[in-house]
Automatic annotation (TrEMBL):
<dbReference type="InterPro" id="IPR002401">
    <property type="entry name" value="Cyt_P450_E_grp-I"/>
</dbReference>
<keyword id="KW-0503">Monooxygenase</keyword>
<keyword id="KW-0349">Heme</keyword>
<dbReference type="InterPro" id="IPR017972">
    <property type="entry name" value="Cyt_P450_CS"/>
</dbReference>
<dbReference type="InterPro" id="IPR050196">
    <property type="entry name" value="Cytochrome_P450_Monoox"/>
</dbReference>
<dbReference type="GO" id="GO:0016123">
    <property type="term" value="P:xanthophyll biosynthetic process"/>
</dbReference>
<comment type="similarity">
    <text>Belongs to the cytochrome P450 family.</text>
</comment>
<dbReference type="GO" id="GO:0009507">
    <property type="term" value="C:chloroplast"/>
</dbReference>
<protein>
    <submittedName>
        <fullName>Protein LUTEIN DEFICIENT 5, chloroplastic isoform B</fullName>
    </submittedName>
</protein>
<dbReference type="Pfam" id="PF00067">
    <property type="entry name" value="p450"/>
</dbReference>
<keyword id="KW-0560">Oxidoreductase</keyword>
<dbReference type="GO" id="GO:0010291">
    <property type="term" value="F:beta-carotene 3-hydroxylase activity"/>
</dbReference>
<dbReference type="InterPro" id="IPR001128">
    <property type="entry name" value="Cyt_P450"/>
</dbReference>
<dbReference type="GO" id="GO:0020037">
    <property type="term" value="F:heme binding"/>
</dbReference>
<keyword id="KW-0479">Metal-binding</keyword>
<dbReference type="GO" id="GO:0005506">
    <property type="term" value="F:iron ion binding"/>
</dbReference>
<dbReference type="InterPro" id="IPR036396">
    <property type="entry name" value="Cyt_P450_sf"/>
</dbReference>
């Protein structure tokens, strides 16, 4: 039975069907899935929904037989053309807002008023120009371009989208001002390199640490200074080659459980929300990899799983909240949402405390000697490595570290997989090429560490997906001292957004910047990173605070992608409105 499973939501449903040699199928915009076990078919239709971690995708999905085409379906090229037209209209509308002053309203400064007064009393223009340049530019440096306006102009879209339009207007660095609050927006690779690597000690995580303190404490993401250096030195050795090789097996087992769930759903004709499944897949992986806990969220909804998602949603909400109401003392006691969050945190912390205690007993009883590539076969987790290494740290600090890795390594990977399958669903040529490589390299076997070197095109698909939909789309920093960015001086305590989205989609930096083209990365060349791309490509950040789990995350998504496309094919459901980002929520990297 070649059943179909919906991925993205859409009203009203239309249907489309296709056929492939192995009968692999799915749909996004919605994504539609057909299992590969049979050539016979049945027809059914079921809309479903998906929300990515950085935004919300809304579209139509329907399912039908794989043996024929629905008469109501529309040509895929027509859909792509409609999407292009709507995207051009959206950009044009936003550009018009910028040009009209609705968003970037230049306000007359006091200095300009004084200069106009001096001109009226006869002060020569040469003197006025000298004075204006001296005071406005500090006498030596030009002033950073500034965009002022109302936040209502960007509330209806993911906020990094208008940042892109503003970048095209104002350039690689500009100041974005909303009332009394301002941010520096950086979209220049040389300035990003200066902040992230060349002068990284002069910058902290700033408001990001403040937002995430309730859940991560002094974990590796929010920590700064000596605490961050000590914790990074402790954690990085745990990600050694033997550990990563063991994790490849874990990734394969978890992905196989997802495939079995999809097979069952396809056979039963059930609706499936794929982003939710990707989220559960990565939660199960990170639980075992970090602290040897099996959430089993692909099969069960337990209290601890719900608690994790409650905390994740709260962290996401706080990252975009305009007012930190959670800091109001009385609000913590009267808000049902915060009471639920606090209860969830207590459950998670109690669970982690129990896991730490169990792991400590296991370490005390084992006879293995600790060494550089130490790994307990029964419990290869990072927690076990840290305890066996004699890491002298409190249980509270361990909890902070574990929670940080749980959050940083969970939703980001789920979002990468979601957007990758969306992109593949629009490019059957890429999907076909990808499946050919996977069939050739893996056959019917689980991937191994040796296979990672052979899955070159699969890796390039993930690389390109991360370019178009980086996780996260911005990196946050705060200046700890005065500095110079490019030609512009900045003061201490400047909040800075490095727009990875802008860097990755800049027409000045990339040919066909908006095109999904894995071939832009040579198969016989090194995997693209911030160094060999000179900081125009920052999927895992850069410099000393680059994500410590970059190799882990890359292998995780490559394995999941390979195992899914080996069993299923993905295709856009025709007739749906285009996928769009309508909400931006961020979980940031280390």
């Amino acid at each position: 039975m070649a059943s179909h499973v919906a991925l993205l939501r859409v009203p009203p449903p239309l249907s489309i069907s296709t056929q492939r040699f192995h009968a692999k199928q799915i749909c996004i915009n919605g994504l539609k899935l057909t299992n590969t076990s049979s050539s016979s078919s049945s027809s059914s239709c079921f809309p479903c929904s998906i929300t990515t971690q950085r935004g919300s995708c809304s579209s139509v999905i329907t399912c039908s037989s794989s043996n024929g085409r629905d008469p109501n379906s529309v040509d895929e090229e027509d859909v792509k053309q409609v999407e292009r037209i709507l995207e051009e209209k959206r950009r044009a509308a936003l550009s018009a807002k910028i040009a009209s002053g609705e968003f970037t309203v230049k306000q007359k400064s006091g200095l300009l008023s004084i200069m106009e007064g001096l001109a009226k009393v006869g002060v020569p223009n040469e003197v006025l120009e000298f004075l204006f340049g001296w005071f406005e530019g500090g006498g030596e440096h030009p002033k950073i371009p500034e965009a002022k306006g109302s936040i209502k102009a960007v509330r209806s879209v993911a906020f990094f989208i208008p940042l892109y339009e503003l970048y095209l207007t104002y350039g690689g660095i500009f100041r974005l001002t909303f009332g009394p609050k301002s941010f520096l927006i950086v979209s220049d690779p040389s300035i990003a390199k200066h902040i992230l690597r060349e002068n990284s000690k002069a910058y902290s995580k700033g408001i990001l640490a403040e937002i995430l303190d309730f859940v991560m404490g002094k974990g590796l993401i929010p920590a700064d200074g000596e605490i961050w250096r000590v914790r990074r030195r402790a954690i990085v050795p745990a990600l050694h080659q033997k550990y990563v090789a063991a994790m490849i097996g874990l990734f394969g087992q978890a992905a196989d459980r997802l495939c079995q769930k999809l097979d069952a759903a396809a056979s039963d004709g059930e609706d499936v929300e794929m982003e939710s499944l990707f989220s559960r897949l990565t939660l199960d992986i990170i639980g075992k990899a970090v602290f040897n806990y099996d959430f089993d969220s692909l099969s069960n909804d337990t209290g601890i799983v719900e608690a994790v998602y409650t905390v994740l949603r709260e962290a996401e909400d706080r990252s975009v909240a305009p007012i930190p109401v959670w800091e109001i003392p009385i609000w913590k006691d009267v808000s049902p949402r915060l009471r639920k969050v606090n209860a969830a945190l207590k459950l998670i912390n109690d669970t982690l405390d129990d896991l730490i205690a169990i792991c400590k007993r296991m370490v005390d009883e084992e006879e293995l000697q600790f060494h550089e590539e130490y790994m307990n076969e029964q419990d290869p987790s990072i927690l076990h490595f840290l305890l066996a290494s004699g890491d002298d740290v409190s249980s509270k600090q361990l909890r902070d570290d574990l929670m940080t890795m749980l959050i940083a390594g969970h939703e980001t990977s789920a979002a990468v997989l979601t957007w990758t399958f969306y992109l593949l669903s629009k490019e059957p040529r890429v999907m076909s090429k990808l499946q050919e490589e996977v069939d050739s390299v893996l056959g019917d076997q689980y991937p191994t560490i040796e296979d990672m070197k052979k899955l070159k095109y699969t890796t390039r698909v993930i690389n390109e997906s991360l370019r178009l939909y980086p996780q996260p789309p911005v990196l946050i920093r705060r200046s700890l001292e005065d500095d110079v960015l490019g030609e512009y001086p900045i003061k201490r305590n400047e909040d800075i957004f490095i727009s990875v989205w802008n860097l990755h989609r800049s027409p000045k930096l990339w040919d066909d910047a908006d095109k999904f083209e894995p071939e832009r990365w040579a198969l016989d060349g090194p995997s693209p990173n911030e160094t060999n791309q000179n900081f125009k490509y920052l999927p895992f950040g850069g410099g000393p605070r680059k994500c410590v789990g970059d190799l882990f995350a890359s292998y995780e998504t490559v394995v999941a992608l390979a195992m899914l496309v080996r069993r299923f094919n993905f295709q856009i459901a025709v007739g749906a409105p285009p996928v769009s980002l309508v909400l931006c929520r961020y979980i940031f990297k280390l």
